[in-house]
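Long-time lurker. I teach an intro course on protein structure, and each term I like to show students one example going from raw sequence to a predicted 3D structure in C-alpha cell notation. This year I'd like something fresh instead of my usual example. Would anyone be willing to generate the C-alpha cells for the chain below so I can use it in lecture? Attribution to the forum is fine with me.
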Amino acid sequence: MLAGIIYGLHDYRLGEAEMPKIEKPTDVLLKVTATAICTSEVHYAEGFQPLTVPFTTGHEFVGTIVEAGSEVKKFKVGDHVDVATYPYCGECPVCKSGNTGHCPNGALFGSDPSWGNLNGGMAEYVRVPFADQACLLIPEGVPDEQALLVGDMLGTGYQGVVQAQIKEGDVVVVSGLGPVGLCAIAMAKLRKPKMVIGIGRRPERLKAAMECGADYVVDTDMGGDAVYEKVKELTGGDPLYAGSTIFEGFADSYIDTAGAASSSALGLRLLKVGGRLSQVAMVNPDHYEFNLHTVCMKNITVQGGLTNLADFPYLMDCLAQKKVNLAPVITHVFPLSEFDKALDIFAHKKDGSIKVVLKP
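-- Reply from a regular --
Happy to contribute to a lecture. Here you go:
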C-alpha cells in the first residue's frame, strides 16, 4: 500500500509499505479516509532527534473500521472514527492519574522505537491498538478535514487554553498562527475573554486568525519592540506599572505555540504581574533560553503540556455543535498519491499553506 515514509535524514517521501493486520484482540484495522502532515514529522526528517528508520508517519487521521479484534466492545466494522495520536491502555497507573498521553503501554502513531515503534496513518490502512480508548465516532455533519484536527491540533490548542486558565474578561495573547495557534484562538474565545490577540507572520495566517476568532492580529515581522508597543496600544496599557521595565504588562494569559526562544521572551514581557504562560510548542533545547528571573519578579505561572486525550469527546462536540470555525485552518487537500508535492508545499509554507490534508 502507499504510505508517507521517513527513510532517513532529509528523506521523507511516498513509498510502499506492508499492509497492516490485527495483532491483538483490542486492535482495529482502519481504512484511512483523510490524514495530515504535522510539522513535527518534518522536524524528525530534518534531524530534530536521532531516529531508527524506516517507518510510516502520520498521527493525524480518520477512517472507517474494516476489521475489529474480538475484545473491541465500543466499535464495529463500518464505524467512521477519529483516532487519538497516542493510543493508550486506560488501565495503568499513569492512565488512571489522567496522563493518558504518557501511557507506558501506548505509542505515538508514526514513530520509531523512541516513541513506541508504531506505524502511522499516512497510509491507505493503519492498525489502531487499544481501539476502545483510541477511537471516537465522528458525528454526522463533521467533515473529515476538521475531525482529524481533534486528536492533535485542536487538542493541543485546547491544552494551551486550559493551562492558561483563561477567565471571562481576560486579555489573551496567542503566539504562533499555525494550526495549533489558530485552534487555540478558537477555543480561547469560548471562555469569553475581553480580547484575544494573535501574533504571528504571513498574511494568510493573520487573516485565518481573524476568521478563527481573534479580535486583533499583530505581525511579528515588525520586530519584538514594535509588537510590544502594538499590544500595549490595543490593550490600553498598564495603568498600575506604566513605564516599569520590570513589572509592566498587558496580558493575563500568553499561549506559546511558536516554540522559539524569542516567542517565550516576548510572552514574559507582555504578561501582567501574576500572568500565566502556557507552553504547548515543541522547542529545540539546544537553542532555547528562558528568563526565570522575569518569571520570579512578575510572579508568572508557567505550565507546559501535550494534548489531553480525555478532552477528545468535548472537542468533537464543539465541532458538531459548530461552536468553533476551523475551516480556515485547512488550506490544501491532495490525494495521497501526491504526497511528495503536498509535503514540499507544507514544509516550505508555499502557496499560503497552513494545514495540508491528504486522502488515500
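Some talking points for your students: The first helix runs from residue 39 to 45. The mean pLDDT is 94.
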